[in-house]
Amino acid sequence: MESSAIFPIFYIPPVSYFSAIKNCDYNFKLEIQEHFPKQTYRNRASIYSPNGTLDLMIPVIKGSKVHTKVKDVKISDEFKWQRLHWKSFESCYRNSAYFEYYETEFNKFYSAKYDFLYDFNMDIFQWVLKQLKLNIELEFTEEYIKTYDHVVDARSQFPVKDKHITSSAKPYFQVFDDREGFKANLSIVDLLFNQGPQAKAFF
Question: What count of Cα atoms within 13 Å lies in the side-chain half-sphere of residue 13?
């Protein structure tokens, strides 16, 4: 069956991403041939910290004048970003209902060495799908197509700058919602750590 949508590969995507692939009946391809665009969720994730929304960014090696395909983007190890991200998850979600439930497996992504952003993002994405019990056989683009006909093109549907993007996800309890209320459309791990095996019912 022909794919009905094209989705980007994100770093632990926002909840709206999973709502969107659900709306496509999980019939989609992942874009791996596009040139890496800056300031997107391809190397960024948003979580709920005691001080509000916190963006976690994976540093990437600056390319030359030649554009780099997403699947070829290398991670920069100029600073210990994995340690920083893990410490952020611990401080933000240690008191959530299900952080300890996922902790051991999730920590593996932050203690292993990764050279390419694609490999890191895909490993976490497949782990998330497993936790959500979404049995999806992933398919990938074989060439870059700028404009699609009769296919949902979701490659630019999740702007980082728009923190108030509409999400069809239902509100759920969050650790710090007594401070700033419910924050919609954070990374899917916010939903997992707070709702655990019930997470799939909220998007």
Answer: 26
Percent residues over pLDDT 90 in the chain: 84
In which domain, by residue range, is 141 found?
A: 5-202
Report how many domains make up the chain: 1
Q: For tokens 């916010």, what's the residue?
A: 190
User: So what's the pLDDT on residue 78?
Assistant: 82
Take residue 134 and report the two structure tokens written for it: 């979404």
* Strand, coil or helix: 124: helix
Contact 97, 194 (CB under 8 A): yes
Six token digits for residue 175: 């650790």
Is the full-model pTM beyond 0.85?
A: yes
Residue 144 clears pLDDT 80, i.e. is over it: yes
Phi, psi of 55 (to 5 degrees): -95, 125
In the numeric block, the tokens 């600056």 are attached to: 62
Cα 29 from Cα 64, distance rounded (Å): 28
